[in-house]
Amino acid sequence: MVKTKTSIYIDKELWEKFKKYAFKKGTEVSNLLEDIIRDAIIEETIGDTLLKLAGPDNYELDFKPIEPKEGLVSELIRVMRNERANNLSRQQ
């Protein structure tokens, strides 16, 4: 995988909190950002695929999005995916 260097403008206080969060998680900021970006792209791709399969008249999301009480949404998604993987491995 080829890496590229980029520059972004972000709130300084938010950036400092994000770096501390990455440190607590034991990961590099770049890796954590890549995970968040990858999760966002995957979610959009799944939505697009479902829309194509079902058609615009038959595809409707039937849930209320939730906001995590703490942490990032990507962290919540990761926990849910791990739980699902554990449940699937127990069933086999």
Major sheet characteristics: none
Number of helices: 3
Overall shape: it is extended
Order of helices and strands: HHH
Fraction of residues in H or I helices = 55-70%
Mean model confidence by pLDDT: 82
| Helix/sheet category | mainly alpha
Q: Please report the total strand number as a whole number.
A: 0
Work out the radius of gyration: 17 Å
Proportion of β residues? under 5%
Kindly, what is the distance between the CA atoms of the first and last residues, rounded to a whole number of angstroms?
Answer: 34 Å
Total discrete domains? 1
Low-confidence spans: none
Description:
The protein is mainly α. It has one domain. 64% of the residues lie in helices and 0% in strands. It has three helices and no strands. It has helices spanning 12-25, 29-54, 73-91. The longest helix is centred in the middle third of the chain and has 26 residues, at 29-54. The model has no long low-confidence stretch (mean pLDDT 82).
How do the helices and strands line up, and which of them pair or pack?
Blueprint: H1 12-25, H2 29-54, H3 73-91
What keyword list fits this structure?
92 residues, extended, mainly alpha
Summarize the structure.
The protein is an all-alpha fold and 92 residues long. It has one domain.
